[in-house]
Design goal:
The protein is globular, with a radius of gyration of 20 Å. α2 links the parallel β2 and β3. It is an alpha/beta fold.
């Protein structure tokens, strides 16, 4: 907590898994967090956390100067900004909100275009998609990937510093999303590799705790082993990053690659694993549950 943040208000648009994690982080740094989520259940959870929920986006926009967006996809981000009840539909005199910090994983070109349209309506729009699970966000270990068209990071730096003390500036809006997708591609494949390695170790009769310790000390080490490996072994799939979110992200990655004439064969394998999880009723478990999809792939 710093003297510069105590008592400051910030908005949170979307109070689901990641929105809640960021809210916890902001509150720990002294911010008063006001939020909007169309789900009554999410709003009540937000209230119980100590936040101030608003019944409408317009009400939130009239109360805070800066807000973080944490929603599912590009469509929802565009709806927040330009929908029938979105921010640009509000009369400027009724809107205090002037800076949006989008943390959602989105299509880069759409976010770059949206930032320019928002600016024409007097709304500054920057992006800080986060690399890390909700647990890593709460711990301050997530990496922020900043896309900024000029000067906006300075306007929101206390918020960004509070959510993700580690962040890198990647250039204009769109580049943060591109970086997140490329990192998520590698991360997804690492997750699958760790899961498949654990399944293989189990099938050949190794004690998994000892095997994971050996793997973490080896040249094969990745942070995924530390974060997800123990969850895979324990079968603890309480969500920090859901399978349905991973399916959405890898589908987006494949779409961006296809639009540029590039095949990603390993990403397609991962997409099939995530789809298998969804098809087997596992959409809302943690993405460490990729191990379950691999375990189901048995030879006759």
């Amino acid at each position: 907590m710093t003297a510069s943040t105590v008592g400051k208000s910030v908005g949170m648009i979307g109070t689901g898994l990641m929105g809640t994690a960021m809210t916890r982080r902001l509150m720990a740094q002294g911010f008063a967090v006001e939020g909007y989520d169309p789900s009554p259940e999410a709003a009540e959870r937000f209230r119980a956390l100590g936040g101030t929920p608003h019944a409408t986006l317009a009400s939130l926009a009239a109360s805070v100067e800066r807000a973080v967006i944490s929603v599912f996809n590009s469509d929802q981000v565009e709806d927040v900004v330009e929908g029938k009840a979105g921010l640009t539909a509000l009369a400027p005199a009724t809107r205090k909100l002037a800076l949006l910090i989008n943390t959602s994983t989105c299509e880069p070109d759409r976010m770059a275009a949206l930032s320019k349209r928002a600016a024409q309506s007097g709304l500054r729009f920057m992006e800080v998609p986060l690399s890390g699970s909700s647990g890593q966000v709460i711990a301050g270990d997530a990496l922020g990937l900043v896309g900024d068209n000029g000067g906006d990071l300075a306007r929101g730096k206390d918020i960004v510093d509070s959510i993700c003390p580690r962040h890198v500036e990647m250039g204009p809006v769109g580049n943060g999303s591109k970086t997140k997708l490329a990192i998520n591609h590698i991360l997804a494949l690492n997750r699958a590799a760790v899961a498949e390695g654990l399944v293989f170790a189990d099938r050949i009769g190794l004690p998994l705790d000892a095997f994971l310790d050996a793997a973490k000390a080896s040249a094969a080490y990745s942070q995924v082993m530390q974060v997800k490996g123990p969850l895979m072994i324990a079968g603890d799939f309480a969500p920090q990053g859901r399978i349905k979110q991973s399916l959405k992200d890898i589908t987006l990655i494949l779409g961006e690659a296809k639009a540029r004439g590039q095949e990603l064969p390993m990403a397609e394998v991962y997409r099939r694993l995530m789809q298998d999880g969804v098809d087997n009723g596992e959409a809302d478990i943690d993405n460490a549950g990729v191990i379950k999809a691999i375990q189901r792939q048995r030879t006759a």
